[in-house]
Amino acid sequence: MPAVYVSEYLQRPDCRVQRVYLPPYSPNLNLIERLWGFMKDRVLKDQYDATFTDFQPAIQHFFAHLQDYADDLLSLMTENFQILNSD
Fold first, then answer.
1. Residue 77 carries which DSSP code?
2. CA geometry: angle at 86 spanning 9 and 5, to 5°?
3. What domain range includes position 54?
4. Is residue 69 part of a domain?
5. 45 in a domain, yes or no?
C-alpha cells in the first residue's frame, strides 16, 4: 500500500489511529530491544563465554524459562509511554 493511501486514511475523521513520531533511534521505545537488554543483564552480565558453543545454552535456557522472569517482564514490557509535545 503506497504511503499516500496511509496518509489519506490517517486524515479521515473516523480514523482511530494516532500517528506518533519517534526519534530516529529510540531503542527504549522498541519492546524487543528491552527484552534483549533484559536478557543481557540476566545472562551475559559478568560472564565470559569463549565460544558460541558455551554461550548458546545460557541463551536457550533464558528463553525456555521466561516464566521465571514474569514479574520483571510485566513491568518492563509495557507500552505505557508518555508523549511529550514539542510545542
1. S
2. 15
3. 22-76
4. yes
5. yes
